[in-house]
Amino acid sequence: MAPFIRLRSISKHFVDVVAVDDLSLDIEKGELFCLLGASGCGKSTLLRLLAGFESPTKGVIEIDGQDMGGVAPANRPVNFMFQNYALFPHMSVTDNIGYGLRRAGMRGTELAERVDSLLKLVRLHELGGRKPHQLSGGQRQRVALARALARRPKLLLLDEPLAALDKKLREDTQFELVDIQEKLGTTFIVVTHDQEEAMTLAGRIGIMDAGQLVQVDAPRRLYERPKSSFVADFLGTISFVDAVVASCDKTSITIGGDLNICAACDDDLPVGAAVKLAIRPEKIYLSRTKSGNVNEIEVVVEDLAYLGFATNYRVKTASGQMFKLQQQQRRSLDAPLSWGETGYVHFDPQDVIVLQD
Amino acid sequence: MVRGMGKYLVNLPAVTGRRLVIALPLIWLAVFFFLPLVETLQVSFTSPRRGIPPYEPLWGIGDDGLFTNFTTGNYALLLQYWSDYFGPAFNSIKLAFFSTLVCLLFAYPMAWWIARSNEKWRTILLVLVMLPFWTSSLLRIYALIGLLNPNGFINTAGLWFGLIDAPIQMMQTDFSIYMGMVLTYLPLMILPLYAVMIRLDADLLDAAADLGGSGVQIFRTIILPLTLPGIIAGSLLVFIPAVGEFVIPALLGGPDQLMMGKVLWTEFFRNRDWPVASAIAMLLLAILTVPIIYARYQDGRDAVAETPNPKRVEAG
Question: What ipTM does this complex have?
């Protein structure tokens, strides 16, 4: 079966910038897909292309097997939820939600019932008579969601849906959004710059940079098996080690020099090839004494930050290599290493990511 | 002690400064708007006389103590000869109404276009809109006469290029009057419209289109209601001075259309009947302001209804 949404070699050029650059992507029906990237990476433009507010300079957009070239926003099975919600300020909540339905010719009790069920879906059934300026940020966000869902779109596009909410509310709303998406089975494409939001919401995440998709994968794979140092660095914290392959036997590589690190590796890398090793902070163990594990390196504590549930360390080897690591506070009376103290870090070869860019 | 002094020294000029900023226009309005208005009202209730000023004082203290010259005779006169005044009043209101309408029809798309153009162009276009204000309006009217005259620029050019066989009569017609009115009052319509349009979020239009609105529907349901305050403000700014407009119909119009401004002028300066002239002015003012005040009052009530349920604090 053909994918529900298919973008083929999409480019969008504005007068002075290339916002989307030869991008291809397939999205399945019912998926919650996140486009994640820094501001200006082209993710919002891609969303506006799907909505039909912009048309691509090159390439084809297919939704549900239909070419969207020349199809106006109103005639696409797509609705859009704006970052600032774009609620009509002169209309009540009910009229905002019913706007799309009225345009489709719905009137009377049918309209009232549909709006009512949407109000219940987003838990606003008491507030139908209010105007947007009489609502809190979270309530406005839910009105915008209900309005965008009213015409039962096959695809809902959400531009930074939670960015305007404060942190606490954002966390609750994330789960609510996922619930609604699962309940309705509508395909969602969410644009965000917030990686935590993307990780929580999405089944798959596409990471964008300079108008291109750098990597598309499930959140876990993106985090644990990034394919480039850009992705590794973009998601979370990571320590990089520039290295040269000293030996490789298809299951693991070793690097020489003053750091002797062994890493699991599926590829066949020639001896002498330049690679970048990347290790996540929570995968690095720090101890006061030598433990005899593989990949054990003597380090000095440069910096530490006590977070309560854990402590973040920056440690340095004798050769000047930095590692960022996070140590969980398992027992409260542990005597943790302090500034300038010498200790040992070690990490599992399985947890070392080998990057070749 | 010293710290308290410092606070005093810092705050005192700020407070007086703020008061001064409010007080200056207030004094200005009191002296040049309110006092003349009260004076006109007084004069409208006195009787005329030969002399300077050409009316009896409304009240004063004479040999026999306090005296008054209060009379409603001027208003009675207006009622008695209402048909003489109805025509000019109707002409003036008609002229003002259609001038406002034509200004609105031209200004609305212009303001929209300016508000939607990029920032650099916006500034240039706004300056172009306001530029005519910097020349005397009388000068602009004379320039228009130069264009529209039977031997003016347009007719001469038309004859020269063979587009017309004989000069077209444009002066002393409704056309020339409305040209003059629109030319003079258009910026007053464009600016308030521009002010509401520049604040109109473009996302609202995208949202309406996304929800299935056609161009006409988006205009009717989103753009029109949200720009209505600008339409009202601009219409008032054009309509009110247009009713009293005296110069433009006198210079550009024919002799057949008597306007209220001309009637006032005649009463004041030809008949030297200031009390009747004042009564006309006051009546015209009442006719114009009562609907406006009523509309504002309605607006105010809507605004109160829109505020979120205020928490009522019950006494006791």
Answer: 0.83
